[in-house]
Amino acid sequence: MTETENTDTEEATEEKIEEEEREEVPPALLKKALALFRSLVRGNGIKPESVDLKSFEGEVLNFEAWERFEIEPKIGEKHQTGREQGEVLGSVQELRAKIRNTMEKVTQNKDVKKQTISILDKRDDLGFGQDNLFILLDRFKKIFVVHEQCTTCSGAMAVLCQTCHGDGRAHCTQCRGQKEMTCTFCQGTQFQNTPDGKQQCIQCHGRGKMACDLCHQTGEIPCKVCKASGKIPCKNCAGTGWNSLVSHLEVRSKSLFDYKRELLPEEERYEFPEGVPALIEDLRSELVTEEHADITFIEDKTREEELERASKENEYIIPYHVRLPWGDIVFSLQGKTLKGKLFGFQPALIDIPPFLEKTAKRGLSSLDAAAHAPGNVSAKINEAVRFRAIGEAFLASARHSKKRAIETMHERYPFGFSSQTIEKMVKQSDLALKRVTKKPRTIGLLIGLVVAMALYGLYYIGPGRASLMPYIPAGPAEFFIDFFLILLGGTLTTLVIQYTAAKALHDAIGKLLPQKKKKTLMPKAGQSALWGYAGGFIVYFIMLETAIATGMLAPGWHTALLKIAGLS
Q1: Is 402 exposed, middle or buried (0-12, 13-18, 19+ CB in 10 A)?
Q2: What is the per-residue pLDDT for 134?
Q3: Residue 532 contacts residue 497 (beta carbons within 8 Å)
Q4: Count of H helices and E strands in the chain?
Q5: DSSP letters along 253-311, please?
Q6: Judging by DSSP bridges, how do beta strands 142-149 and 87-89 pair with one another?
Q7: Three-class DSSP category at 541
Q8: Are the C-beta atoms of residues 239 and 202 closer than 8 Å to each other?
Q9: Are strands 169-171 and 158-160 parallel, antiparallel or unpaired?
Q10: In sequence order, what are the residues at sequence separation of 6 or more whose Cβ sits closer than 8 angstroms to the Cβ of residue 243?
Q11: In this predicted structure, what is the pLDDT of residue 12?
Q12: Cα separation of 532 and 488, whole Å?
């Protein structure tokens, strides 16, 4: 056999091994992709049965991904009075050394990895694709404490009383140490008034002073601060004689996601198909939570030893086995071919041209006219919603904010329309709905203001307020009741606006909903709420001033407001 023949044989053998190692995409997944495509075109100008799967070239990718976990300490220290509980150490230096030794033991402990996996296994995303995910390793939590004798009292638990300077006795608070006090009979005047006139005080004999009855003429009394002991509890140690430096050590691991090939042996490395790395980077944990990929922890001792050698001293690596369908898919559509990519087990179809924009061109044109052109807006909406996608854009716009409506449409139409077209559909649907409900909203505003006016009139001009006044205390309570009345009027006005606009909304897009759900379709309040509350506020003050002008006693807050404004 020649050298050339040998080379060809080796290449053929390698190709055969590669083919055997490849995992084929399940046929059921391709059927699911076809069903997804057909469901998307249904009601959008294309018959679902006209769509077929022409070809698929791809495989279930099998590769490793990793979460690197860096072990780091989280230390909280504080000084506390007394002897705190914990592992007692002799000095601050010993404490620092103990923390270092503990961290070294943790990094060498293989149970750290097991504990992390048990924690990750309880998460919906398995911790996959996470950066800066902190795993608290509770079992390694420690409390270290250094007991230090109080430097203020030297462990005696007490210090000299500063009031009596340790003597236990203090100046008499009544005579201030003078041993005598002002005569209580003549108040120090030395004389007293008698029926015979002003005479010398018989109590102090004209001295104006008398012996202090509190200290018995000693000038001192037992010190009240230290209770005559001469000492008080030391504040620095709370009377314990000791202080503690308490160090709370928590050990945690911080993650860093990695799916590149450096951690694999060179002979096992392969290149990702174009586009896959970007999807992995973009989706990350959604690969698990959205079930795009089948992801499991790798439990293999040989691989574990390899990763230990590849990891740094204070880190460990948790490997995942990832199975991810990927490939080129081609659909036939009314004699034309559409190429794209199949991704994941759901599956997702990506990179497919926005082919629905052409089939829905007529509907998009009617939608544009409903949003901008004069004429019968409702009729133009009815023309546009013959296309299901446009009808769904109307429903999303009626129910949600523009941002949420655009997100909803992207979820329902991951392909078929460009992002720009979806945004345009939502914005034009929103504008068309505003146009078709503009007149009913105006009518609703007028009706709502009449209802609010009747409410305010019943309260102020009618019997409402007069019957409640005996039970309402003046002040804040009266103000809050009146403020609640304003809110009630504004809310009623807003609700009337929405209900009058609802009929026009039902006429325009109600047929898109099942009969049972039509009643739930209500237009967004939007600016109607502002008009409703503003109108209710204005009508309220008109009715209030009218009631005051006809003789009603003005509320206290109204009078105070006029004084502040300088109008009374």
Answers
A1: middle
A2: 93
A3: yes
A4: 18, 17
A5: EEEEEE-SSTTS-GGG--PPPTTHHHHHHHHTTHHHHTTSSEEEE---HHHHHHHHHHS
A6: parallel
A7: helix
A8: no
A9: unpaired
A10: 79, 80, 81, 82, 147, 148, 149, 150, 236, 237
A11: 47
A12: 11
Tokens of 334: 């009314």
Beta bridge partners of 465: none
Within 8 A by CB and 6+ apart from 536, the residues are 448, 449, 452, 486, 489, 490, 491, 492, 493
Q: What is the mean pLDDT of each run of 10 residues along the chain (568 residues)?
A: 49 44 91 95 92 95 92 92 93 93 88 91 94 90 94 91 88 86 86 82 86 88 90 92 94 88 58 87 94 93 85 89 96 91 94 93 93 88 91 88 94 94 95 87 88 88 79 76 87 86 76 62 72 87 85 78 74
d(CA 220, CA 215): 6
Tokens coding 535: 């109108």
The set of residues, in sequence order, having a beta carbon less than 8 Å from that of 125 and lying 6+ positions away, is 285, 288, 289
Distance, CA of 59 to CA of 18 (rounded, Å): 12
Rg over alpha carbons for the chain, rounded to the nearest Å, is 43
Q: Which residues neighbour 255 within 8 Å (Cβ) at sequence distance 6 or greater?
A: 67, 68, 69, 127, 130, 131, 132, 133, 134, 135
The gap between the terminal CA atoms of the chain, to the nearest Å, is 118
Please give the single-letter amino acid code of residue 257: F
Write down the pTM of the prediction: 0.67
Tokens of 368: 């544009």
**454, 533, 526: which is closest to 487 by C-alpha?**
533
Q: Peptide bond before 347: cis, by omega within 30 degrees of 0?
A: yes
- DSSP, residue by residue, 18-55: HHHHSBPPPHHHHHHHHHHHHHHHTTTTS-GGGEEEEE
